[in-house]
Amino acid sequence: MKRLALLGASGHGKVVAEAALASGWGAIEFFDDSWPRLLNNGRWKVIGDTASLLSHFDKYDGVLVSIGNCFSRWEKHQALEAVGATLAIVIHPSATVSQYAELGSGTVVMAGAVIQVDAILGRAVIVNTGATVDHDCRLDDAVHICPGAHLSGHVNVGLGSWVGVGAAVKQGVSIGERVVVGAGAVVIHAVPNAQTVVGNPARVAQTRAM
Ligand SMILES: CC(C)(COP(=O)(O)OP(=O)(O)OC[C@H]1O[C@@H](n2cnc3c(N)ncnc32)[C@H](O)[C@@H]1OP(=O)(O)O)[C@@H](O)C(=O)NCCC(=O)NCCS
Question: Per the omega criterion (within 30 degrees of 0), is the bond before 147 cis?
């Protein structure tokens, strides 16, 4: 039975766990820095924290960081890479991923998502429920495409950016690093690093420190 360790016991973690079971992993155990206060994530056990996983990763066939926050996920992903852990890729069987797409380690593709031909996704990316990433998109490490968001062809998304639920991005648009695209936004122009954009057409709402 293939065993998967998930770091991050949250609602997002439960969705990753179910996608993993549906795609052939046999057993799931969670790790979370709220352990030992937190002992369960729904029906799954939480059996240790980050330090425990860093010292016991070799007891698992794969590990994956199931934290929705892009920068926490990226930090933990890099820590696991640094000790030589095998970072899994989880694709829900109802997702459609082109045979010509590339997915980096630690990436999850949830139920009903679609990733089209020649899309290239970095490490620790989330393509969430029903989201679509069209042809020739480039998603850098630690990007999160939230449920029901749609990227047209040739869209670039920079490190650690978060495209909110139901957002749409026009073809060929580049989104910088650490960008937040608000829920339902329609992005038709390039977005510089560290901006929050909202609305239709999307406009800058906030600038954050990098
Ligand atoms: C954009 C976002 C990050 C802003 O959050 P925030 O910094 O807490 O901002 P606030 O809620 O204080 O809103 C600030 C202003 O922006 C507006 N605003 C916030 N989100 C908006 C959105 N998605 N679309 C349009 N306007 C929005 C608010 O109405 C408010 O306007 P006002 O100042 O005129 O009253 C957040 O609202 C959002 O859309 N998050 C995405 C959620 C998501 O996709 N979750 C999926 C999880 S998998």
Answer: no
